[in-house]
């Protein structure tokens, strides 16, 4: 079957859209590709179709397409969708029991699966690498590829090992995909893959979404924010569809939930501290349309493929142009008019500046935390994070640098375990040199600050905001539609 026939057979679409057919042709002919495509633009098909077109053989296992994704929930949703279509796909991640992981490792060796989704951290497991060595990896797909780059807005250290991972699996044809990447990030993605500009064809579908109306509203304190939320909800109440209101802080989200409850405006709330079962229930309520309004932190959104989201509002200033643009990309995927509203209160910038401090521990703090884990393990296990926090920064309850540092130590492979209740952490490697490099850490903080400054400039821009967005992402602009 050719690409179009494969699309029609497995996915039921009559034709490709945008550059999908050209991208698939490039990959099928062994060419590497970097794809920048708006959220909801159909990036996944660009590697799923080639995976299904690979010819099977009776004397050896079918070639495997390996998909690297940073998000466990997203890969599970994608695999579930593929399996409902009868496609032999699976994922392996930390959400599985040891028994189930071993079963899937055995499935790899036995020649099962056309698509395998994993996080890049899975390459730390020797049994996983050994299983892959038994398979012919024809295509490597790197989803959310901005995570490769330290210049990106969601950097993952293990993504910097992709050159090594590609070598481990035989340097297959590689496709990297993301919704948002500045020119600097695009160049960094290609370098981190161990490829050259000449080897990679860039496919940029642009970021223009003519059906999205972008607006920034200056507000003063919570009364005006609440007024704008209610106004937007009521504007869209008579039309089919849904809305998302994003908040930075859970406590602010909870406060506005109470205020909306008093106004008898039905809604659900979603954030990362909810139990998994509750998060799934809330997501199902929203996706089914039973509750068309969700108040959420940025934990909500990845994998939310709902066509009729009529508005996305940011009730607090987000941290960067990239994260803001990715989140508004969930609006209006059906092509119908949709509103993207950013409520701007200058005081919110203080919160984001604090977030930048929390997310950028310095080299001294990394060293002190690592020393506690090495030399005071019994106290850490017995008294948990509050004891560590007291030792590190004298009971500053709202200082979250400790959590950031533990997350980065885990991502670099220096520690393993959990730091919930109870704390169970094991030191598994040396303190990474990257986390001891004060100059490097300071440069990252400065880049993050520059991203927030760019968002402030966007907010204060008097001209065509869509032109500002295009210029930020290094794209040509053809005027207002």
Task: Give structural attributes.
481 residues; alpha/beta; Rossmann fold; 3 domains; seven-stranded parallel β-sheet; six-stranded parallel β-sheet; 15 strands; 43% helix; 16% strand; globular
- How many domain units? 3
Rg, please? Answer: 23 Å
- Kindly state the percentage of residues in helix: 40-55%
For the biggest sheet, the summary is: 7 strands, parallel
**Estimated structural class:** alpha/beta
Task: Walk me through what this model shows.
This protein folds into three domains: 3-204, 3-Layer(aba) Sandwich (Rossmann fold); 212-345 and 450-472, Rossmann fold; 356-436. The chain contains 18 helices and 15 strands. A seven-stranded parallel β-sheet has the order 3-4-2-5-6-1-7, with helices on both faces. The model has no long low-confidence stretch (mean pLDDT 89). 43% of the residues lie in helices and 16% in strands. The two termini are 39 Å apart. With 481 residues, it is of the alpha/beta class.
């Amino acid at each position: 079957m050719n690409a179009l026939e494969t699309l029609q057979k497995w996915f039921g679409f009559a034709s490709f859209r945008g550059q999908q057919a050209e991208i698939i042709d490039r990959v099928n002919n062994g060419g590497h590709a970097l794809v920048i495509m708006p959220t909801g633009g159909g990036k996944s098909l660009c590697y799923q179709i080639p995976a299904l077109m690979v010819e099977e053989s009776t004397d050896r296992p079918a070639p495997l397409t390996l998909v690297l994704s940073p998000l466990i929930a997203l890969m599970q949703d994608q695999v579930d969708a593929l399996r409902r279509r009868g496609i032999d796909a699976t994922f392996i991640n930390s959400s599985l029991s040891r028994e189930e992981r071993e079963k899937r490792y055995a499935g790899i060796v036995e020649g099962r699966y056309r698509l395998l989704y994993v996080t890049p951290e899975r390459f730390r497991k020797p049994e996983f690498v050994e299983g892959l060595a038994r398979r012919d990896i024809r295509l490597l797909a790197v989803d959310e590829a901005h995570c490769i780059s330290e210049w990106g807005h969601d950097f993952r250290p293990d993504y910097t090992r992709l050159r090594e991972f590609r070598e481990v699996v035989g340097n297959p044809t590689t496709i990297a995909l993301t919704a948002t990447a500045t020119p600097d990030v695009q160049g960094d993605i290609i370098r981190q893959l161990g490829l050259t500009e000449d080897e990679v064809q860039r496919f940029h579908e642009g970021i223009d979404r003519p059906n999205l109306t972008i607006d920034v509203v200056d507000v003063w304190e919570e009364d005006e924010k609440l007024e704008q939320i209610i106004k937007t909800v009521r504007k869209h109440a008579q039309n089919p569809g849904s809305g998302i209101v994003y908040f930075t802080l859970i406590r602010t989200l909870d406060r506005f939930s109470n205020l909306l409850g008093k106004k008898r405006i039905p809604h659900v709330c979603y954030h990362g501290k909810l139990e998994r079962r509750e998060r799934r229930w809330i997501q199902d309520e929203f996706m089914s349309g039973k509750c068309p309004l969700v108040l959420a932190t940025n934990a909500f959104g990845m994998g939310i493929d709902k066509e009729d989201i009529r508005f996305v509002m940011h009730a607090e200033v987000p941290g960067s142009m990239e994260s803001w643009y990715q989140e508004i990309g969930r609006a209006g995927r059906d092509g119908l008019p949709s509103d993207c509203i950013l409520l701007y209160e200058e005081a919110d910038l203080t919160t984001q500046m604090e977030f930048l401090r929390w997310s950028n521990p310095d080299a001294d703090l990394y060293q002190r935390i690592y020393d506690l884990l090495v030399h005071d393990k019994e106290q850490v296990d017995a008294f948990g994070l509050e004891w560590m926090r007291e030792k590190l920064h004298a009971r500053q309850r709202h200082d979250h640098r400790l959590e950031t540092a533990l997350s980065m130590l885990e991502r670099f492979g220096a520690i393993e375990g959990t730091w919930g209740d109870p704390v169970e952490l094991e030191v598994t490697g040396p303190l990474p040199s990257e986390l001891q490099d004060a100059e490097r850490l300071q440069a990252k903080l400065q880049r993050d600050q520059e991203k927030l400054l760019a968002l402030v400039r966007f907010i204060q821009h008097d001209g065509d905001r869509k032109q500002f967005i295009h210029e930020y992402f290094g794209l040509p602009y053809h005027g207002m539609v």
